[in-house]
Amino acid sequence: MSHIHFVGGEKGGVGKSVTARLLAQWFIDHGKSFAGLDADQSHGVLQRFYAEFTRPVDLSVQESADQIMDRALGAERQVLVDLPGQSIRPLHAWLTGADILQFAREVGVSFTFWHVTDGSYASVSEIDELIELFGDEVRHVVVKNFGRGKDFSLFEGSPAKQRLDAVQGSTLDLPELDPTAMLRIDTTGASFWAAANSTDGPYTLRALERQRVRLWLKQAYAALTPVLEERG
Predict the structure, then answer these.
(1) Which residues, other chains included, contact 63 with Cβ-Cβ below 8 Å and sequence gap of 6+?
(2) What is the pLDDT, as a whole number, of residue 10?
(3) CB burial class (10 A; 0-12, 13-18, 19+) of residue 129?
(4) pLDDT mean over 17-33
(5) What is the rounded average pLDDT for all residues in the chain?
(6) CA–CA gap between residue 18 and residue 62 (Å, rounded)
(7) Residue 25 in contact with residue 217, Cβ under 8 Å?
(8) What single DSSP character describes residue 72?
(9) Could you report the per-residue pLDDT of 172-186, keeping only the tens digit for each?
């Protein structure tokens, strides 16, 4: 069965693209066939860091958005879509315009929405709205990104958390990567694998920076793996 992953968070700056890049690296490291689609026209982060696997997609153009389902059909693979902020309206229009969720059930394709949050009121409120919009037709995972926020108590006591529990969604804690190492990775355009392992060339980090990246990947994978393997 193919599986489509939408990585979003309507509020900007919550770490959507870092989460998408981490998922891409997890798929590679675990031998999962995957196709990336970068819907963030203004940044193109997934396309920059994982260019070999990623194509651009424009959610406002039906033919372009259809790539999402096209990539899931015909072969068992993970399809990873990095969404920009404020993208739910065109995405919802595409999904409902051809009753794509029903079509996906018929052809054996499932969906996960990864809601990335920094714990702020705006971010948490948007999660509540999005889960209400899509309900239990898709799987919901809330990513508490400690690289962007440190206090998630607002989410824990929110209607968004209650709604997530009602649809049997999941939460995970994404640890913070050392800011200096993250800045160097972003500057060089390295994949997380290259950042953790390259010892020469343009992607080289200092030895202890590489060690911090390896430790971060280990911790992040420990949080991701149970969620990704729970329903394939």
Answers:
(1) none
(2) 66
(3) middle
(4) 96
(5) 93
(6) 27
(7) yes
(8) H
(9) 999 999 999 999 999
Count the Cβ atoms, other than its own, within 10 Å of residue 204: 17
* All structural domains of the chain: 2-175 (3.40.50.300)
Instruction: Report the distance separating Cα 197 and Cα 90, nearest Å.
Output: 39
Cβ-based neighbours of 210, under 8 Å, separated by 6 or more: 195, 196, 197, 198, 199
Runs of H (alpha helix) within 135-206: 153-156, 159-166, 179-188, 192-197
HSE at residue 70, side-chain half, CA atoms within 13 A, is 9
192: which residues sit within 8 A by CB, 6+ positions away? Answer: 21, 22, 25, 185, 213, 217
51-108 per-position pLDDT tens digit: 999 999 999 999 999 999 999 998 889 999 999 887 888 999 999 999 999 999 999 9
- Distance (Å) of CA 66 to CA 62, 71, 98, 204: 6, 9, 10, 38
The model's pTM? 0.94
Element containing residue 4 per DSSP (H, E) = strand 2-8
Structure tokens at 108: 């054996």
User: How is 33-60 classified by DSSP, letter by letter?
Assistant: -EEEEE--TTT-HHHHHSGGGEEE--TT
- Could you tell me the strand order of the sheet in which 170-174 lies? 54-56, 34-38, 78-82, 2-8, 109-117, 139-145, 170-174
Encoded tokens for 231 = 């329903």
The whole-number pLDDT of residue 200 equals 85
3-class DSSP state of 116: strand
